[in-house]
Amino acid sequence: MSLKTSYRFIAPFYDIFIEHASREARQRSVLRLPQQSAAQVLLSGVGTGLDFPFLPGQHDYVALDLTAAMLARSRDRARGLRMAWVQGDSMALPFAAHSFDCVVLHLIVAVVPQPQRCLAEAARVLKPGGRILLFDKFLRRGERAWVRRALTPLVGQLATRLDVVFEDVLETVPGLRVLSDEPALARGWFRLIELKKEDADV
């Protein structure tokens, strides 16, 4: 089953499992968006719009998701925000290079089949000096986590990968610098990470 198909079925139940648990971490993450000046912000893999209540109102947002069902559920949360919706793939973004000041990647890098492509695409569409905000579950280098690794072939087909090592993903995308890396949930399995795109093209 493809992720597009599985998330079409998951969409009606997604918030029940995710909203409360992730609320504080999402809020902490989006506080790193510019609070004064206006910016162009991409929410890649936006899901049902659980980030929307915490977003500053002055920015122009693009909400992208693979499934129409997720985008449809997000629309009711966007009141008061300048928001455009795009159905598209986070691993092949339908935007020109250097289109956004910030890219938000919440619970998407460890979901897609190719995390490296997801991060590389976010870097491509980001302006030099721009920021990427990540909230996701990542293993650390050297962490065995046998159960999570063993479950990935099954769970990864339905909803999310459990074996993604962030440092390995980052190593494949030159030009990104880590500004902060903080534990969020599950004793640091979920992390809040802020990246900056250096002036040279990635």
How would you describe the overall organization of this protein?
This protein is an alpha/beta fold and 202 residues long. The chain has a single domain, classed as Vaccinia Virus protein VP39 (Rossmann fold, 3-Layer(aba) Sandwich). It has five helices and seven strands; from the N terminus they run H-E-E-H-E-E-H-E-H-H-E-E. The protein has a seven-stranded mixed sheet. Strand 2 (60-65), helix 2 (68-74) and strand 3 form a beta-alpha-beta unit. The N and C termini lie far apart (33 Å).
Percentage beta strand: 25-35%
Based on secondary structure, the structural category is alpha/beta
Main beta sheet, described? 7 strands, mixed
Q: Rg, please?
A: 16 Å
Output the strand order for the largest sheet. Answer: 3-2-1-4-5-7-6
CA-based shape: globular
Return the CATH class: Alpha Beta
**How many domain regions?**
1
Mean pLDDT across the residues is 85
Fraction in helix:
25-40%
How many helices does DSSP assign? 5
Order of helices and strands: HEEHEEHEHHEE
Distance between the termini: 33 Å
CATH architecture: 3-Layer(aba) Sandwich
The CATH topology comes to Rossmann fold
